[in-house]
């Protein structure tokens, strides 16, 4: 019986060490792949950005496009202000209703 226990213990030990080793190897492989991906992204991204800047530089934005963008920004800000005002009034009404219910 003791011999059987020793054999099973040895087998379990070898299995656990193998599992740990493969786990460590997988973790290191993942880390290496992430590093490589980051390096590749760093190498590729700045080149694309510089190309875009080089293409955009000679073009000048016209006054009409600037005006339209300003108008759009104003409209969106006005809409946002209106929405927040409406929400505030609704919240106030709800809180009043809750307060009256709580008093009852």
Structural account:
- The protein has 104 residues and is mainly α.
- The protein folds into two domains: 1-56; 74-104.
- It contains two helices and no strands.
Salient structural properties:
0% strand; flat; 92% helix; 104 residues; mainly alpha; 2 domains
What secondary-structure arrangement, pairings included, does this model have?
Elements: H1 2-56, H2 63-103
The gist of it:
By secondary structure, the chain is mainly alpha-helical. It is built from 2 helices and no strands. It has 2 domains: 1-56; 74-104.
Q: Give unreliable regions as ranges.
A: none
Biggest sheet record: none
| Distance between the amino and carboxyl termini | 79 Å
- Fraction of residues in helix: over 70%
Specify Rg, calculated over alpha carbons: 33 Å
Shape: flat
Number of strands: 0
